[in-house]
Design goal:
Elements (H helix, E strand, L loop, with lengths): L7 E12 L6 E12 L3 E5 L6 H9 L6 E6 L2 E5 L4 E2 L8 E3 L11 H11 L4 H14 L15 H13 L6 E4 L7 H18 L3 E5 L2 H7 L2 E6 L2 E6 L1 H6 L4 H7 L2 E2 L3 E7 L2 E6 L2 E8 L15 H11 L3 E4 L10 E3 L2 E2 L2 E5 L5 E6 L9 E2 L7
Parallel strand pairs: 3-9, 3-10, 7-8, 8-9, 13-17
Antiparallel strand pairs: 1-2, 1-4, 4-5, 5-6, 10-11, 12-19, 13-14, 14-15, 15-16, 16-20, 17-18, 19-20, 20-21
Helix pairs in contact: 2-3, 2-4
Length: about 375
């Protein structure tokens, strides 16, 4: 993945990471590539075990990858080919842990200023910087309190302040809202998004909550079994998912059984419960399917071809929320329909052997 590193705060290229070694190695990340631009918020979304937290920890320097590269700005902090790995403390990244990890015996001021103390900053400068950050997060009046004297939302803000106090180029957030109750979580989503935009932060956030990812992020990377299934804006991920996995993970959907009964050049006919529906072949869109980027290694390209299967079928069913698993060419295949913003519908059926659905906005039938 060749990109201008000067435009990106974070660039990860072909990252592979295993737990264990030799015959007992368990691959967790399988060639992940992604980037984070200045002022952008990217959410790492996926089910448990998909590799999202492992990717975040590898960027932070808390997990050692086997292969690939990681760049923070113009600095290379990991290079598998050269066996180079910059220590976590030298990467200058802000990290907010899921548990907040506040020192229970230190007050808010000392928790936030601890990193500056380790950097041997002068005490007057520490005080000025800590109070500035506490003020930005609405915590100035709580500087002398201890963690057990704070609410869950206040503890979360202290953890964020500690990550921001030394102006890191990227802030890493590991499920930062998961410890809050439902009402506080809603409020924290709005606060966190407003804070990130106001301060112009670049943030990489892990979450398993689709609504949280869509509310906070500019772009979502959906991981599945150690690979990026798809990436895009929240709206694009919801309205035009490239695969059945993406469609099912990003929201509710409806499916009906169907059979591919006729193909005539560019036109196809699918039977759904006795109703004949017209459609047209649709290609898998390069740049999004199975990894989120064009190109890649020969192995990756072959994997994408295998997962794409045969042809996608875009059906014309105006105003009807119908998804069609299609039986065709001797394979049991799948399609999906997701409700789009504004009441539109998305639908596709795929004749590929691995039941991959490709979705597009429904159009009127030809000639109508």
């Amino acid at each position: 993945m060749k990109r201008d590193l000067n435009m990106n705060e974070l660039t990860v290229d072909e990252l592979h990471l295993d737990y264990g070694s030799g015959a007992h190695a368990n691959p967790i990340l399988k060639g992940v590539s992604m980037h984070l631009q200045k002022g952008e918020v990217v959410a790492l979304l996926g089910p448990s075990g998909s590799g999202k937290t492992t990717l975040l920890r590898a960027v932070a320097g808390l997990e050692s990858a086997r292969q690939g590269t990681i760049d923070i700005g113009a600095r290379r902090v990991f290079d598998g080919a050269r066996k180079f790995e910059m220590p976590a403390e030298e990467r200058n990244l802000g990290l907010v842990f899921q548990s907040y990890a506040l020192w229970p015996h230190k007050n808010v001021f000392d928790n936030v200023g601890y990193g500056l103390t380790l950097r041997r900053m002068a005490k007057p400068d520490i005080k000025a910087r800590v109070m500035e950050v506490l003020g930005q997060l609405g915590l100035g009046h709580l500087a002398e309190r201890f963690p057990h004297q704070l609410s869950g939302g206040q503890q979360q803000r202290v953890a964020i302040a500690r990550a921001l106090v030394y102006n890191p180029p990227v802030i890493l957030l590991d499920e930062p809202l998961s410890n809050l109750d439902a009402k506080l979580r809603e409020e924290a989503r709005a606060f966190l998004r407003e804070l990130i935009v106001r301060l112009g932060l670049s943030a990489l956030m892990v979450t398993h909550d689709q609504a949280e990812a869509m509310a906070i992020s500019d772009r979502i990377l959906l991981l599945n079994n150690g690979r990026i299934e798809q990436q895009g804006t929240p709206q694009a991920m919801y309205e035009t998912p490239d695969t059945l996995f993406t469609a099912e993970f990003m929201g509710s959907n409806n499916r009906l059984p169907g059979a591919l009964v006729q193909r005539d050049g560019e036109r196809v006919v699918i039977d759904v419960a006795g109703t004949r529906l017209q459609g047209s072949p649709g290609a898998i869109r390069g740049g999004h399917h199975a990894g989120g980027a064009r190109g890649g290694s020969a192995r990756q390209r072959q994997s994408r071809r295998e997962r794409a299967g045969a042809a996608a079928v875009h059906l014309h069913v105006p105003g009807r929320p119908v998804g069609v698993p299609v039986q065709g060419r001797g394979h049991q295949c799948a399609g999906i329909c997701a409700h789009a913003a504004g009441g539109g519908h998305l639908l596709a059926a795929d004749a590929g052997r691995e039941a991959v659905g490709v979705l597009s906005r429904l159009d009127e039938p030809p000639g109508q």
